[in-house]
Design goal:
By secondary structure, the chain is an all-alpha fold. The protein has helices spanning 2-19, 25-52, 56-85, 92-110, 124-156, 161-187, 192-217, 229-245, 247-256, 258-283, 289-316, 326-332. The chain is flat and about 105 Å long.
Length: 333
């Protein structure tokens, strides 16, 4: 809306110059140049609005309005040239009216409620997510204020033990608030929540494998009927192969791209879960318990490695400066 208003005012102001009988030729040429720039900008706004809206009627209307503005601008330039050649050819004021009407039509249509932008607003959920950081930050400020007051008193009475005690008493909340602030900022960093979710999922996979191992050593496994040995084995192998391809993106995201970290680690659980499910299913079709335990242990080893990898990526947090955590991430890969 502000851009439209700016363009409209610029066009109207220079149309007044063009329509004035007192304007000299250089003034008119300069005014027409500015008008052309403003109308070109206005047309580009219309084209952009046409691309952005999902309403087919509005798409077409913006294009039509842009064409009308462009045509009116061209007609005005040609008409002014004709008047220059024939000074008695007509009123300049009448010549600018079509352009002003076209520009006014654009402004009115774009000002309809459908196209009025809605100011950004923080949701209740967003405010709730901000609260721990805000509270910790407020705690730091309040504590520092009290420390400064104590330091001021100490400067006046350096030998006063109660003042020293007061300074020490206020320094502790500041330290704790700073720690809470750092912890909250780290926990709210991109990808951290997703890493926690994946770690929880991988932990569940580990427990499922442990339960399967206990069943093998106790009463044995009941054969699953939703697939056969070949199908379960194929599921396990395919998931493991896909998992290998997802490792490098985690390395890159963990070291340099926090925005992609959540998606990258999410791919781990996407393939580990079916891999574990396939391995457990295959175990129910394997006769010998030794082979069953071998498959379970191998699968558990992969899951545990995945847990180490996700934890290392979480610690690196996509921060290029966290060089102390990068070697652990490389080792986990």
């Amino acid at each position: 809306q502000a851009q439209l208003t700016w363009a409209y005012q610029g066009i109207r102001q220079h149309c007044d110059i063009v329509s004035s009988q007192q304007s000299a030729k250089p003034q008119m040429i300069s005014a027409l140049t500015v008008i052309a720039k403003h109308t070109s900008y206005l047309c580009s706004i219309c084209r952009q609005a046409s691309m952005n809206t999902s309403n087919p009627v509005a798409k077409n209307e913006f294009i039509v309005l842009a064409k009308q503005v462009a045509t009116a601008t061209s007609d005005l330039v040609q008409a002014i040239k004709a008047i220059e050649e024939q000074p008695q050819g007509g009123s300049r004021e009448r010549l600018v009216e079509p352009l002003l009407e076209a520009v006014k039509a654009v402004r009115q249509y774009a000002s309809s409620p459908e196209f009025i932008s809605i100011p950004a607003k923080i949701s209740a959920e967003g405010r709730k997510a901000q609260e721990p950081v805000i509270q910790a930050g407020r705690g730091v400020i309040d504590g520092v204020v009290e420390m400064v007051k104590a330091a001021k008193s100490l400067a006046l009475s350096p030998d006063n033990p109660p003042v020293w005690q007061q300074l020490s008493m206020h320094s502790t909340p500041v330290s704790e608030s700073v720690k809470r602030l750092v912890d909250n900022i780290r926990d709210k960093a991109p990808g951290q929540a997703q890493c926690e979710q994946v770690l929880h999922t991988l932990g569940t996979c580990t427990r499922e494998l442990d339960s399967c191992a206990l069943a093998v050593n106790a009463q044995g496994l009941s054969q699953r009927r939703d697939n056969n040995l070949h199908g379960f084995s194929g599921q396990t192998l395919n998931s493991a192969a896909e998992l290998v391809d997802k490792l490098e993106p985690i390395r890159v995201a963990g070291k340099n791209n926090a925005e992609q970290l959540g998606h990258a680690v999410g791919e781990i659980s996407r393939y580990v879960v079916p891999m574990v499910n396939g391995a457990i299913g295959a175990c129910t079709h394997i006769v010998h318990s030794q082979q069953q335990m071998s498959l379970i242990n191998q699968t558990r080893s992969v899951v545990e490695s995945a847990i180490t990898l996700v934890q290392s990526a979480k610690d690196s947090a996509g921060n290029p400066r966290a060089t102390h955590a990068h070697p652990r991430l490389d080792e986990a890969i």
